[in-house]
Amino acid sequence: MMRADNLFKTFNPGTPLENPVLRGLSLTIESGQFVTVIGSNGAGKSTFLNAISGDISPDTGSLFIDGQDVTRQSAWQRAALVARVFQDPLAGTCEGLTIEENLALAMQRGQGRGLSRAVKASYREAFRDKLSTLKLGLENRLGDRMGLLSGGQRQAVSLLMASLQPSRLLLLDEHTAALDPKTAAFVLELTDRIVTENKLTALMVTHSMRQALDHGHRTVMLHQGRVVLDVSGDSRSRMDVPDLLAMFEQTRGEKLDDDALLLG
Amino acid sequence: MSLISLMGALEIGLIFALVALGVLISFRLLNFPDLTADGSFPLGGAVAAVLIAGGHDPWLACGLAAIAGAAAGWLTAWLNVRLGILQLLASILVMIALYSINLRIMGAPNIALIGLPTVFTPFISTVNDNAWLIQPAVLAVIVVIAKLLLDAFFASETGLALRATGANPRMARAQGISTDRMTLAGMALSNALIALAGALYVQTQGGADISMGIGTIVVGLAAVIIGETLLPPRTLWLVTLATVLGALLYRLLIALALNADFIGLQAQDLNLITAVLVGLALVLPKIKGKLRNKQGGKSA
Known about the structure:
The complex is a heterodimer of chains A (264) and B (300). With 264 residues, chain A is α/β, with parallel strands linked by helices. Helices cover 33% and strands 23% of the residues of chain A. In chain A, helix 2 packs parallel to helix 4 and helix 4 runs parallel beside helix 5. The radius of gyration of chain A is 19 Å and the shape is globular. Chain B: This is ABC transporter permease protein.
């Protein structure tokens, strides 16, 4: 379970560049729920995600994951609770390290790190099994450097890495945005499978209303640093992109004019 | 070049192999441009020289020198991660401060160790003078042990976390790695190796001198770069091997340049030769790449 209470975050306060990004954002996600987040540019999606992961610290408000107050914890301290896949395929893995070394790093997420061998023989077996489920032939390339893989392959491995250790919350930050449509579809399918198989609580930011409605159990729209729409259950399953737009215009009394959200 | 001067070049080369391994950790693995070396190398020398001159065990002196170096590296990292001072600037501050500290430790600009027991003494025969052979041999053993220990460390959970910290800090934090702590620990390890090299250096040279640190970082970096040019950095044990070989080759090239009378180079030209060698090592991979492209174009 994750609970965000009244989060505020302003970048460059007191300067001409002052930019209030989060303005009283509150959201509760129940265990096992898969929530998709949409919103136009500057709505605060990425800032919200970075606040949950600990990359940035909110000005006021609090954050609870699984009942623990993590508001003032740094990113590495809450890594045991939060797993993450980045938007940039290069960001989630180390390209200079081998596939198995990257997986071994993820294997120790939330664990202590000692002086025993990082890539253990028993791990290798498990890595091969997991990689074979991707059907990318990576199970035979454990010793290859990550940099040799394509963006889609790296994103698939990132997803796998995020599921190697149990987490209370999986954060997906537009993780298909940098991929071509076919690869994006593959990674999304993989996301659904990994979330379902591991019964993960997940938060997926996306730039596509279509994706937001097609995946997960619940869709939340952010606007000007706040949750303005929150649909789930039957009303959501009957919904299509135009309905979502109409609902948004109704609640806000303004027209949405972000092409990125309408396309796709 | 005589055998003696060849062994002399090997001896210095082996000492700088330790420096190069330290530089490899800071510059390459942690991605932390660190000039502390110019201060931590003489720091190790100063600590070891004072202890040995005071009648202490030379191995103990080496150990304490390494600890002093670790403290210096830790301080540089601390200035960066805790106080937010730019990496290069933090290391320059520590390097400058160490000059005064080293003078304080030594109490004089130089300390002579002639005739005092060193780590090499037990192996050197009193009958026939075989120091020219024994000193490089002992150093070779130390360097091999250091290389193997580093290889094992970088394959460990903590070692891998350290490499991830340098390669992709954001990803490292997302995997629960405290990049701050890793930087502190890695910089301590790097400068401990460099200070150990300084401690061994004063024992081979028969004394410590306050100016012995000048240019340490350039030589270390030269060795790392030459090593990278020699061997493709596929796996980490190859990288450490290349670094050690790079340090040896560098000193051999220097010795050759200085011994070739027809070129007319002398000892005072050392830094100039260093700069030229490092420049060549930096350009060589590019020239190699261009040549390969040309050949590829012809065959296609």
